[in-house]
Amino acid sequence: MSKSDSKLAINGGKPVSEKPVLIHKPYLMEDDFAAVDRAIRSRFVSGDGPDCREFERQLAQYLGARHVLFVNSATSALELAFRVKGFPPGSEVIVPDFTYTSTALGPLYNNLAIRLADVYPDNGNLDLAKLEGYITPKTVAIVAVDYAGNPVEMDEIMQLANKYNLYVVHDTAQSIGSVYKGRKTGNQGHVSTFSFHGTKNLTTGEGGAVVTSDDQIADRIRILREKGTNKYSFLTDNITRGYYEYVDIGNSYVQSNILGALGTSQLARLDWMNAERKKIAEYYLHNLKDIPNLGFLRQTGDSSTNWHIFVILVPREEKYWIMDALRAEGIHANVHYTPLHRNAYYKHLGADIDFPGAMGFFGGLLRLPVYPSLGFEEMGKTIEAVRKVFSALFAD
Question: Which of 297, 301, 277 is nearest to 179 (CA)?
Fold first, then answer.
């Protein structure tokens, strides 16, 4: 075969899968539907209800963390993580160049400047060899991201932060259930921020959480997320006579009690869902490892990923042809965002030459379908399609 071979679906041939194999599906079961139904029937459907509190309690226990604060998105969690500190406007925050925009929006919403940092070209996490070089007298914080659920090297980042007295926000949006050196992610930074978006391993549709062991940070965020009121204490302690006070400036970041119930239901089988993802990833790795010119994301040592995303690394000059060819075969491979500096809002912060690691990683990255309900037949078709496309690409 060759790229022009008529057997390829991209050239009009018969696709490997007539029914598209989607890149993602949320994993929802009868327990989830029942939990949502029960919460609705309780008539407590607004924010910070008993099911939200129970989800926070169970998640804190699962993570081994002191405080979990359920909010309406990871973006809100990141904003709150910086708002609570009150850094002087214009202070600098180091943010990985290869991440989703929400990572940068947290400090930007708080009138802070961001400085983009390069990442490893083989896994997209912060390149520790370069990190110290981004610190200036104006630096106040570092945001570390677990790309694809693969833990970033937090011990070294915390050592560097302690050396320069920096605040560390660990963006764990993708790594719920991942383990770093024997501990669940969410325990390593001053604050961690999870996402429960519909694409995540644990989903509440939309949602996120701030996780911290700092009592003062947690107490302030409870006020900030509830429009600057002390409603949390009012609901918990009922120390006033039917009212609560407006004690700060805040916004409405609390999450519906309905979604708290869904979170608890999802959490009950999170480890199972992650184990299913691992089985799929291991099947891919075993069946694709012998393909020339195809690589995989490097995993952090002494850690285990939750396989939020399954990444293949392909030749840069052929990436988009490979993606289009796989999609024509019925496999919804895709690119998982671009480096921040290549987007319109951030392009003033650097050029391709400044971020060789991010550009190298982005240049070859494609993702394949991985989710608990992905069937054996769909996995087989994904393998078949990858083999078909690569045999054509490198026929000569």
Answer: 301
